[in-house]
Write the structure tokens for this entry.
Amino acid sequence: MTDRRGAVSDARGRSRAGGPGRLLIAVYGVFALAATARAAFQIATKFGEAPLAYLLSAVAAVVYVVATVSLARAGTRAYRVSVVAVTIELVGVVTVGLLSVLDAQAFPHETVWSGFGRGYGFVPLVLPILGLAWLYRTRPGRD
């Protein structure tokens, strides 16, 4: 549901982009900027050293950008895109986290998701869980 200003809201009229949602979007925005800058720098200056790690950083950046934009937008389509993006983020951070711990030589350089996001205070692991919880709470058609 949207109000006259186009703000996203659930069935009870609460905005998906308001309250805790606003903070969630802000954190996603910071991660989108940080991951994009990191990936761009790594790919431009050190790509030959660890191409897999740096491409994964770029994938993480794209996921964070898509999640940020879709979380901030109104409508059912934006909601669905948010769910997909945040789910991909969770699968990515868990998969890359496990692989980077089990086979550290495969990841000689850190990515945003390496070690479950330890380089970022484990926020990359917690963020998609909070994101999915918020999306569930503000899902369209909720009574």
In short: The mean pLDDT is 87. Residues 24 and 127 are 8 Å apart (CA to CA). DSSP finds four helices and no strands in the chain. The helical segments are 20-46, 51-72, 76-102, 123-137.
